[in-house]
Write a structure and sequence with these properties.
Length: about 400
């Protein structure tokens, strides 16, 4: 067996969620997917594709009409300019996009710089390729990378080949303004490094307009995006990788080996989303903002502190100081006693200790129940503290 594969551990977030699903009636605030349905016009496009027998292989990079629609969408939404013939590959979600990009770029001994807390696939993908993940703790800087910290880590880690940037962020919900991104780019352009910018939550940015790193530093940036979060299409598994033609051609080789191509039906659904679904995310985004504000205010009243929730659909909340800070113990006891599932922050790496990740991609009923159950749980802990005192 390949040692780098044997060393990879099953992700804790999946194990915890599986435990939560075994508890009847549990309120689940762990799931990072929209609780909306895929828009009807997209589903109908897929149905028509099946009925018209569009059920055969496609070219590995994706149908070229689809790639043209992707290019137009990214241009209209974010001002990006990608040649659909040479600079875009359609992948089986952003997860495969990360995997294929890492496999195309990394060699044993390289390093991957990952701001932490972070989504859980990036480090294992680096390990799989014999590269070393280098985690940059952002918990003291509002869960954002500063140019000063970025410059320092490059001074001490000269083998960094990829800087992985995810914004709006899973798990923290923070994002970056154009000025903040430019300050990072000023550091990155001094180094022979690729920026893999995971912007899957770009359509769910609330506090300011999303600016793509593909516009800030196009010659070094590999952009990842897709439809899972914006159009409630997690199960369709559609993502895109965009960037300089010379690196995209190499990523497409890995993509071809791994998948041949993504499903033809998904591609027809994606074509409809990119062509006629420009406004689909806005409807969901409006509801997410209502849910975000309700959850944020409820947590605040209970003594939790959260970074500014700029985007995505997560709140990364600090356990109130007068309670035990073991987030794994907190989350497990909360699940057992109140049947409320929330992910421990430490599952997302360095800087996540003492935090909990709440997903507000849930109904208002679930959000209200979440606050009530937390209130009950914290109240029971205070009573215990008083008894012990």
């Amino acid at each position: 067996m390949k040692p780098s594969v044997v060393a990879i551990k099953q992700q804790e977030i999946f194990k915890f969620n599986a435990r939560a699903k075994k508890i009847p009636g549990a309120v689940n605030m762990t799931v990072g997917e929209p609780n909306f349905h895929t828009p009807e016009h997209i589903k109908q496009a897929a149905i028509r594709a099946i009925e018209d027998d569009h059920t055969h292989y496609t070219v590995p990079e994706g149908d070229h009409e689809l790639l043209g629609a992707v290019a137009n969408y990214l241009h209209d939404k974010y001002g990006l300019n990608y040649d659909p013939e040479t600079q875009i590959v359609a992948t089986t979600g952003v997860t495969e996009g990360v995997f294929s990009a890492f496999n195309a770029i990394l060699q044993a001994g390289d390093e991957v710089l990952i701001p932490s807390p972070s989504f859980t696939i990036y480090g294992p993908d680096a390990d799989f390729n014999g590269a070393a993940p280098v985690y940059l703790d952002t918990s003291k800087t509002g869960f954002k990378v500063t140019p000063e910290a970025l410059a320092e880590v490059f001074r001490t880690n000269p083998r960094i080949k990829i800087f992985l940037l995810n914004y709006p962020s899973n798990p923290t919900g923070v994002s970056y303004t154009e000025d903040e991104l430019q300050a990072l780019a000023d550091v990155l352009k001094q180094h022979d490094v690729f920026v893999i910018s995971d912007e899957i939550y770009s359509e769910l940015t609330y506090s300011f307009k999303h600016v793509s790193f593909g516009n800030i530093l196009p010659e070094q940036t590999i952009l990842l995006n897709g439809l899972s979060k914006s159009h409630a299409m997690t199960g369709w598994r559609f993502g895109v990788v965009c960037g300089p033609a010379e690196v995209i051609s190499q990523i497409n080789k890995i993509h071809e080996l791994a998948t041949t191509s993504i499903t033809s039906i998904t591609q027809y659904a994606a074509l409809e989303a990119y062509t006629n679904g420009y406004n689909d995310p806005a409807v969901m985004k409006e509801q997410y903002q209502v849910r975000r504000d309700a959850l944020y205010e409820g947590l605040k009243e209970l003594g939790f502190k959260c970074p500014t929730p700029d985007g995505a659909f997560y709140l990364f909340a600090k356990i109130p100081e007068d309670y035990e800070q073991d987030d794994v113990k907190f989350a497990n006891e909360l699940l057992d006693e109140e049947h409320l599932a929330i992910l421990p922050g430490s599952f997302f790496g360095i800087g996540g200790e003492g935090h909990l990740r709440f997903s507000y991609a849930a109904s208002m009923e679930s959000i209200n129940a979440c606050i009530e159950k937390l209130h009950s749980f914290l109240g029971s802990r205070k009573k215990l503290a008083n008894i012990e005192g």
